[in-house]
């Protein structure tokens, strides 16, 4: 969605991004980098229809003469609609010469994550006055091995029904009540046909490849 709002508010978020604990190697640091403000200059300048019309006149003349005006701009990707289910896919490979190499570094992720610092100030399905958009972790996919071979396993939480999620999915209602604690339940590690109960600390120490969160607030 391209924003044409007042430049003073176009890059505002629901919560102050500068208050985040941006520990390197954390999921918050990854999200911050992914949604950072970028400057488009030189060969990355933006084609500006308004500037072009102001300089060359009506559009029909522009197309025939193929003249355009490019301008410096700022770009930032923010969330405009908070999803019921948040899926985070970590890029676990990097280019090493002509080869791809797996990244085995542990990325810290919390049980409850606040998406507000990465949402636009006018996020569509967030109740007015809310400065938090909270999600509770319920699933993790982990990969062991190399880029050529390996094994996928999963952690899943058996939990009670999340009424806020039901309202959001079935009725389109934004959560109103303040819920800041993770959904209660028991974690299980699933590897092929083997299923074993595990602690929360075991889950949070895993080498996450995919993270699944459900909306709380």
From TrEMBL:
<dbReference type="GO" id="GO:0016579">
    <property type="term" value="P:protein deubiquitination"/>
</dbReference>
<dbReference type="GO" id="GO:0004843">
    <property type="term" value="F:cysteine-type deubiquitinase activity"/>
</dbReference>
<dbReference type="InterPro" id="IPR050164">
    <property type="entry name" value="Peptidase_C19"/>
</dbReference>
<dbReference type="GO" id="GO:0005829">
    <property type="term" value="C:cytosol"/>
</dbReference>
<dbReference type="InterPro" id="IPR038765">
    <property type="entry name" value="Papain-like_cys_pep_sf"/>
</dbReference>
<keyword id="KW-0378">Hydrolase</keyword>
<dbReference type="InterPro" id="IPR028889">
    <property type="entry name" value="USP"/>
</dbReference>
<dbReference type="Pfam" id="PF00443">
    <property type="entry name" value="UCH"/>
</dbReference>
<protein>
    <submittedName>
        <fullName>UBP16 hydrolase</fullName>
    </submittedName>
</protein>
<dbReference type="InterPro" id="IPR001394">
    <property type="entry name" value="Peptidase_C19_UCH"/>
</dbReference>
<dbReference type="InterPro" id="IPR018200">
    <property type="entry name" value="USP_CS"/>
</dbReference>
<feature type="domain" description="USP">
    <location>
        <begin position="1"/>
        <end position="216"/>
    </location>
</feature>
<dbReference type="GO" id="GO:0005634">
    <property type="term" value="C:nucleus"/>
</dbReference>
């Amino acid at each position: 969605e391209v924003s044409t709002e007042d430049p003073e508010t176009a890059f505002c978020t629901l919560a102050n991004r500068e208050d985040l604990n941006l520990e390197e190697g954390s999921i918050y640091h990854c999200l911050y980098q992914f949604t950072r403000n970028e400057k488009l200059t030189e060969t990355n300048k933006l084609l500006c229809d308004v500037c072009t019309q102001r300089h060359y006149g009506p559009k029909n003349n522009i197309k025939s003469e193929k003249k355009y005006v490019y301008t410096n701009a700022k770009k930032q990707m923010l969330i405009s609609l908070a999803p019921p289910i948040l899926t985070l896919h970590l890029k676990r490979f990097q280019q090493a010469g002509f080869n791809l190499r797996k990244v085995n570094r542990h990325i810290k992720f919390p049980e409850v994550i606040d998406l507000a610092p990465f949402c636009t100030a006018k996020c569509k399905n967030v109740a007015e006055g809310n400065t938090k958009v909270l999600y509770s972790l319920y699933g993790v996919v982990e990969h062991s091995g190399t880029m050529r071979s390996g094994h996928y396993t999963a952690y899943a939480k058996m939990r009670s029904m999340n009424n806020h999620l039901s309202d959001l999915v079935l009725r389109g209602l934004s959560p109103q009540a303040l819920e800041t604690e993770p959904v209660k339940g028991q974690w299980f590690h699933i590897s092929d046909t083997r299923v074993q109960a595990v602690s929360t600390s075991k889950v949070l120490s895993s080498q996450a490849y995919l993270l699944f969160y459900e909306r709380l607030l």
